Amino acid sequence: MSLRLDGKNALITGGASGIGRATAIRFAQEGANVCVADRQAAAAETVAAEVRKLGRKACAVTVDVSNPAQVQAMVDGAARELGGIDIVLAAAGVSAANYGEGQIQPKFLNELPFEEWRKVLSINLDGVFLTCQAVARKMIEQGRGGRIIAISSGAAKIPLKGSGDYCVSKAGVWMLMKVMALELGRYGITANAIGPGVIDTPMTKDIQASRQLERMIRRTPVGRIGRPEDVANTALFLASEEGSYFSGSILHPDGGVIMQ
Ligand SMILES: NC(=O)c1ccc[n+]([C@@H]2O[C@H](COP(=O)([O-])OP(=O)(O)OC[C@H]3O[C@@H](n4cnc5c(N)ncnc54)[C@H](O)[C@@H]3O)[C@@H](O)[C@H]2O)c1
Questions:
Q1: Low-confidence ranges of the chain (pLDDT < 70)
Q2: Which residue among 19, 47, 129 has the greatest number of ligand 1 atoms within 8 angstroms of its CB, and so is best to mutate?
Q3: What is the mean pLDDT of the chain?
């Protein structure tokens, strides 16, 4: 049986941890070469080594996705090392849960300092825009189409008290994918968002350690929180031939929470 991403080259931001890391491994299991980009250099290198162990080409790039020059260098480097880019997963992101030095520090919008708003928006929205724009230009130049996938959140649809910056950034990511889908279709490029529910990653460790976890599980029809692999499999579907008729969509690996 042929592998679902045989010979494809993927760039994954936020690839050092959680959802990005799981997707790097899942894509490599299905035959893809992977460039792992993250601001955590050593952890990105470790994931790249795991990809190589699976017999694929891999590179690790240190990047702050909110920095335009670093993003351009990341995309040029990935294309050079792997021989082009066919798939991008923009997963680098922060939330109040990991933004506040490990503490959950929800702030209502009327209290939120502009610098904190800018910090979340600059990584979660500007970072996805910069990454996907630079990759889209590369894909157009290559002339062989491509798949753009960005990690949004259930928070793109559901307003959460105390996480206004995060909700707005993730709603922006979804709209970014819809406009990109419209504009890039003529180049054979699709653009989609993934809006996970609560997933077991370092980003949610404070939520998981709190009493909120039990309440969340009770509200989830599937009866558990998500695993990074649940999201990685969604990204695999969108990146593979089976996902070729999706563009401008948001898919929710969420155990049934977001519909409620
Ligand atoms: N875990 C969840 O429940 C959940 C739910 C919905 C959406 N998401 C989204 O999924 C994505 C991945 O999150 P995760 O849960 O795997 O968390 P995570 O903290 O494990 O991974 C996030 C990664 O992004 C990297 N990163 C952060 N800021 C960066 C920057 N400026 N430049 C480069 N890299 C940067 C971090 O170093 C980290 O490796 C995020 O966009 C997050 O908002 C997560």
A1: 1, 96-105
A2: 19
A3: 95
CA 246 / ligand 1 centre spacing (Å): 24
List beta partners, residue 12. Answer: 36, 89
- Ligand 1 pocket test, candidate residues 17, 99, 132, most atoms within 8 A of CB: 17
d(CA 77, CA 176): 24
9-251 CATH choice from 3.10.290.10, 3.90.79.10, 3.40.50.2300, 3.40.50.720: 3.40.50.720
Question: What whole-number distance in Å separates Cα of residue 80 and Cα of residue 18?
Answer: 26
Sole residue written with tokens 């950034």: 169
> What Å distances lie between residue 83 and 186, 191, 202, 258, CA to CA?
23, 21, 32, 39
Give the domain ranges of the chain: 9-251
Q: Ligand 1 mean position to 70 CA, how many Å?
A: 18
Residues annotated as catalytic (active site), given as ranges: 166
| Ligand 1 atom closest to residue 202's alpha carbon, by position in its atom list | 20
Question: What global pTM score does this model have?
Answer: 0.97
pLDDT at 257: 96
